[in-house]
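request received
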Amino acid sequence: EPEVTQTPSHQVTQMGQEVILRCVPISNHLYFYWYRQILGQKVEFLVSFYNNEISEKSEIFDDQFSVERPDGSNFTLKIRSTKLEDSAMYFCASTSGTIKNIQYFGAGTRLSVL
Amino acid sequence: AQRVTQPEKLLSVFKGAPVELKCNYSYSGSPELFWYVQYSRQRLQLLLRHISRESIKGFTADLNKGETSFHLKKPFAQEEDSAMYYCALIGGNTGKLIFGQGTTLQVKP
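response:
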């Protein structure tokens, strides 16, 4: 069964550094999402992406964040200048067809900002 | 405001006992509701969605619009049901999922 793939599984970085989290969605999917989960808290929506542009973003998704689908297969989340509070599990998800379809999640990237 | 509430952080039952994981939601309009499950060291995966009205792994969930609830039930818990369970709804026009806090289900032998 096809899966959403995320790399790396764990990323450690120094505060102020840029990080790029990578995702390969399922190949025929059209809608892409990033979520994050701070330890002990709920999974929170960050951004949705469709037709090569952001369709919605949350308040968390400020100017430090950006997303890109550079080559038709990868879907990346960039954090320009990481803060301690960016430490979290980041999940990528994708879905086919309509927005009401099932979202398939990657295994997540654990980001640790020191 | 769109919100999902799961009041229990932890639910601990013995094998064979009935299970009910509570979920309440706040949403104007007709919600699309889901239960996602995360087994230890595995990814989030869909357990069931309200429009399919099916039973998966013995679990069912009924949407009660009057009580704005979507509780997850299973008549006889199994040890392999131990996992984190998240109730979620689709909010807005872009398909974003709004999650509850999650409930850890622990089934003891």
